[in-house]
Amino acid sequence: MYGFKELSMAPGFSDGSLLRERLTAELFRMGGVPAARTAFYRVYIDFGDGPEYAGLYTMVEVIDDTMIENQFGEDEGNIYKPESSWRVFIESEFKKKNNSAADFSDLQAAFDALHSPLRSSDPVAWREGLDATLDVDHFLHCLAVSNAIVNKDSYGTHPRNYYLYSHPQRGLVWIPWDHNSALNGEPGVGGGLGSEPKGGLTLVMDDVDDDWPLIRFLMDDPVYAERYRAHLAAFAEDVLSTTAPGTMISAFEALIANWVSGPDGEQEGFTQLLTPVSFPAGIADLRQHMIDRRQLVEGFLTTAN
Question: In the predicted model, what is the mean pLDDT of the chain?
């Protein structure tokens, strides 16, 4: 259909603004992180007696359909939809979305490099081995954007909502996914080593333990930790400190407002909105969230420097 073999429809679950899925993807891409394209649609289904309204959705480009080819220029490598914390390699935790041959050597190499004893004995060699199998700088870039905006249903709190693409030159590339719970929550700068992350990761991630080795091991390495802070600073300067987030919120609100409220708005039984004021309250919360995150990130970077 119009060049797509598959599309994902996000209903805005637990999102009074109905904007989080789309706004988060836009913020990732503005920050230099490839993410699925999205658009708003009113959905009607014809069961045989004419179209019946089914609600307002955010349509999301499926990663293994068109996104990788469009944004990476090719899609010959393995594409995975994992549910793994990266503690140990379990093949069944990495659902392969293409290339049916049972070859997981790219993943096994990345796991071996991450958990290599060189991490303690020879950090330079450890980083070289890890960089050869995983695009670590890109992962740190994703992590910086994710923590800046708060993406609480993602790696570090849950072992899900990401894809991996085995790029022929870059190694495994991290791709964020499923953003209805993003742009929500108030994790601060730090939380104390060993405590369980609540409502998203803090900026320094001292609340992340060895259950999440892809974060903990990288943040314990001063070279990788500095790269993470550099990506955080760049996102703060290029995106958070600009008018772009507020402008996008206004544009997206205007785009769907008539289809959310009023005579042509959402209908009972076909909406995620709980009350008539859920939408304006959700928009206000979203605006305040972006202001709060900008202030927190800028304050942290000023103190860190």
Answer: 94
Supply angle C-alpha 67, 184, 303, rounded to 5.
Answer: 100
* Residue-wise DSSP of the chain: -TT-S-EEEE--TT-TTS-HHHHHHHHHHHTT-----EEEEEEEEESSSSEEEEEEEEEEE-IIIIIHHHHHS---S-EEEE---SSS--GGGEEE-S--S---HHHHHHHHHHT-THHHH-HHHHHHHHHTTB-HHHHHHHHHHHHHH-B-SSTTTSS-SEEEEEETTTEEEEEE---TTBS-----S---TTPPP-SS--SS-TT--TTSHHHHHHHTSHHHHHHHHHHHHHHIIIIITSSHHHHHHHHHHHHHGGGTSSTTS--TTS-S--STTHHHHHHHHHHHHHHHHHHHHHHHHHHH-
pLDDT tens readout for residues 23-44: 999 999 999 999 999 999 999 9
Q: Are 122 and 116 in contact (CB under 8 A)?
A: no
- pLDDT tens-digit profile of 226-266? 999 999 999 999 999 999 999 999 999 999 999 999 888 99
Task: Name the stretches of the chain with pLDDT < 50.
Answer: 193-197
% of the chain with per-residue pLDDT over 70: 97
User: Quick one: how far is CA 69 from the chain centroid?
Assistant: 19
Give the closest residue to 164 by CA, choosing from 115, 220, 108: 108
Cα dist. 28→122, 138, 189, 247, 302 in Å? 34, 12, 20, 16, 23
Q: Domain limits of the chain?
A: 7-243+285-304
Beta-bridged to residue 37, according to DSSP, are: none
